């Protein structure tokens, strides 16, 4: 016979009482209701039974020789394991301080002797509801714990892959500073996560010309990083046969393509690739190291900043359309002639759109102010590192680094 409705959580009951008559009365009622019943006449024997197989419900007398009901209840609660047993103390005590002692010892409920059968069944039913909730909660907690373990394993795998992906992305920028004659190109690349969607680079097939760029792919994370990997091949500083910035002639000679042609080629390539929804902004420049003439194209990227040796600053370009958005877009180019000591800064919007402590963005004016805080004697990589450090000091602690920060600095020192 199974326990009645509402009592399914309680199957096994332990009755502990030094009175044989009292045990017989309780055991008879419990077996009639369909419970599996064990009995003990003292606390020590009861603990042996509980260690062997913990009951769902304990009915224990308070006053017993040797280990009394309170001591037995404390020992029962100290048993190892996750399963919970409902504990009812049988007592003639009704004073509030004595009830408090029982609760402190771990008792869940009390019944006054002599025990009324209907009241006993009602108290057991209440205990069954509590055990149902407790076991349901334990099952859910176990499921949550197992799910969290699986998520942690997945996170560890992804984190490991991202660390490796970061190394691969860093390989796209093999050197952060390189001299071309007396001039120099320096690079800064600071992703806001393991990997990012910004890319900077430089290359020269020889002679007196050098190409350099700053790219910002839409979005963040893995997808953007994969696009930068493709761009790294299209603008490779190591494999010129793949570089769209280099124009190879039939006789084997080569030169740097005009920036507007490079932007147009990249636009065609990206629109031809099915499954790629990302686009990117770009500032791309070709510098003549003899004359100081720099030819640039701006494709939706922040305006290049010309820093004259005299201390003057000038933002260049008209904006343009990002690469990979529309087919047949004409890309315009413009020129500027640099003098000895002039610098040209290409940078991503991670600078100008950085949130400051007041919640506002840095903007162009803030960028020029930030540059003014950097030592005029600094150059190359040292200048870019100092610029990024100054930016990090102004970042809002509430927003932090929300976007990748990157820059390319060209320093012209004459022929």
TrEMBL record:
Q: Name one GO molecular function term.
A: phosphatase activity
> From which source organism is this entry?
Sedimentitalea arenosa
Origin superkingdom: Bacteria
Stretches assigned to the Response regulatory domain = 12-128
- Keyword Phosphoprotein found: yes
InterPro entries, per database record: Bact_Sigma-Reg, CheY-like_superfamily, PPM-type-like_dom_sf, PPM-type_phosphatase-like_dom, Sig_transdc_resp-reg_receiver
Under Gene3D superfamilies, the record lists: 3.40.50.2300, PPM-type phosphatase domain
**Entry-annotated residues carrying 4-aspartylphosphate:** 61
Record bears the keyword Hydrolase: yes
Keywords assigned by UniProt, alphabetized: Hydrolase, Phosphoprotein
Q: Name one GO biological process term.
A: phosphorelay signal transduction system
Q: What is this protein called?
A: SpoIIE family protein phosphatase
* Matching PROSITE patterns: RESPONSE_REGULATORY
